[in-house]
Amino acid sequence: MELVYFYILSFIVVVSAVFVVFLRRPLHNVLFMILTMIGVACLMLQLEAEFIAMVQLIVYAGAVMVLFLFVVMLVNITQADLLSQLSAVRGWAGALVAFAIFGVILTVFKVGGQTAAPQAQAAQHLTNTELVARELFTTYLLPFEVASVLLLAAIIGAVILVRKGR
Amino acid sequence: MLTLDHYLVLSAILFFLGAVGVMVRAQIIVVLMCLELMLNAVNLAFVAFARHLGSVEGQVIVLFVMVVAAAEVAVGLAIAVAIFRQKGAVGIDDLRVMKW
C-alpha cells in the first residue's frame, strides 16, 4: 500500500519538476515548483519526519515560493526575454554534464545504499519533533546559533542590495 | 516493499532535473528555482538515510540546509532585482560585466 502511495507521489513530484525545468513562463515554473515542494513534503511525512515535512511546507512552499512569486511579478519579464535561450551548443553541453552528474550520483547511491546497515529507531516514546529538538539544542547548538547569524546577514544583505537611492 | 533505493533514485532524478534546469535555462530567477529543486532532492536523500539508519541527525542537517537555502534565495533574488533595475533585463547573458 505504501508502495502505491510512493509511486503516486513520486509521479506527481517528477512530472511537476519536469514542468519547472521546461515550461517557458516563470510564473508557471513557480506554481509547479510549489506542487513539487508539497509532494516532497508528503514523501517526508511517509518517511516519518513530520517536523521536517511541516517546515518544508511552511518555509519552502509558503515563504520562499511566495518570495519567488513576488519577484517574478515585480521583475517584468518581457516577451523578448522569454524567447532568449542559451545557444544550442551550450544547452546540449549543459544537458550532457547533468547526465554525467546523474550517473555519478546513481553510482554513489548504489554503493552507499548497500553499506548503510539499518538500525532500530531509538527512544520510541518521544515524538519526532522532540527528537529533533533534543539533537538540535545539544549536539548541534553551535551550528544552530551560526545559522541564525547567517540568516541575519542574509536579511541585511538583501535589504541593502535592493535599497533605493544610494 | 519500500526500500531506501526507491527514495535515493527519486532523489537522484530530482537532482538531475534541477541540474538540467540550471544549465539550460536563460533567466536568473528560473535558475535560482532549479537550484532550490536540487537542494530539495538532497534534503529528500538526507531524510531517507535518517529513516534508514534510525537516527535523527539527518533531519537536523536538513534544517541547516533549509536555512542556507533561504538565505541564498533572499540574497539571490535581491541581486536579480538589482540587476533588473540597472539593465532592465534578467537574462544570464546580461551579466557580462563581471567577466572583464
What is the fold's blueprint, element by element?
The complex is a heterodimer of chains A (166) and B (100).
Chain A (H helix, E strand, L loop, with lengths): L1 H21 L3 H21 L3 H25 L4 H5 L4 H28 L12 H11 L2 H22 L4
Chain B lengths: L3 H21 L3 H26 L3 H31 L13
Helix pairs in contact in B: 1-2, 2-3
- Extract low-pLDDT stretches of chain A: none
Derived structural class of chain B:
mainly alpha
Q: Sketch the major β-sheet of chain B.
A: none
Largest two-chain interface: A-B, 83 and 75 residues
Ends apart, CA distance between termini of chain B: 56 Å
Identify the CATH architecture of chain B.
Orthogonal Bundle
Structural features, described:
The complex is a heterodimer of chains A (166) and B (100). Chain A has a domain at 1-78: Up-down Bundle (Four Helix Bundle (Hemerythrin (Met), subunit A)), CATH 1.20.120.1200. Helices cover 80% and strands 0% of the residues of chain A. Chain A contains seven helices and no strands. Chain A has helices at residues 2-22, 26-46, 50-74, 79-83, 88-115, 128-138, 141-162. The longest helix of chain A has 28 residues, at 88-115. The model of chain A has no long low-confidence stretch (mean pLDDT 85). By secondary structure, chain B is mainly alpha-helical. Chain B has three helices and no strands. Chain B has helices at 4-24, 28-53, 57-87. In chain B, helix 1 packs antiparallel against helix 2 (28-53) and helix 2 packs antiparallel against helix 3. At the A-B interface, helix 1, helix 2, helix 3, helix 5 and helix 6 of A face helix 1, helix 2 and helix 3 of B.
Please describe the structure with a list of short key phrases separated by commas or semicolons.
heterodimer, A: 166 residues, mainly alpha, Four Helix Bundle (Hemerythrin (Met), subunit A), 7 helices, globular, B: 100 residues, Helix Hairpins, 3 helices
Summarize the structure.
By secondary structure, chain A is mostly helical. Chain A has helices spanning 2-22, 26-46, 50-74, 79-83, 88-115, 128-138, 141-162.
